[in-house]
Amino acid sequence: MIENLIKVGAFDFTAYPRSALLTLLPLTLKEVRKKAKDGAQNKISELISSDSIPAYHFSKFFQMNLEKEILDLYISNYP
C-alpha cells in the first residue's frame, strides 16, 4: 500500500523523488521494524540519510503511467 501511495505522489511533499522513495522503501521498512522491535521511536527523516537517496527522477511520462495504472486517472499532469 505504501508503494502505491508513493507511486501516485502522496509523499511528494517530502521533496524526495518518487524513484528514491521506492528504492529506499524496503530498507526503510526493515529499519522501522528493527527500531520498533527495539522499542525505539524515530521519524522517517531520521532513518533516511541524504547520502542514500538516489538523484534520478522518474520521467513525467513514466510517473503519469504509474498514476493512471493505480488510480485510473492522472494527478501530476495530463497527456
CA-based shape: elongated
Q: Supply the number of helical segments.
A: 4
The main sheet comes to:
none
Mean pLDDT: 82
Global structural class:
mainly alpha
Could you explain how this protein is built, in words?
With 79 residues, this protein is mostly helical. It has one domain. The chain is 53% helix and 0% strand. It is built from four helices and no strands. The protein is elongated.
Write the layout of secondary structure elements.
Elements: H1 2-7, H2 18-37, H3 44-47, H4 60-71
Keywords for this entry:
mainly alpha, 79 residues, 0% strand
Summarize the structure.
With 79 residues, this protein is mainly alpha-helical. It has helices at 2-7, 18-37, 44-47, 60-71. It starts with a helix and ends in an 8-residue tail after the last helix.
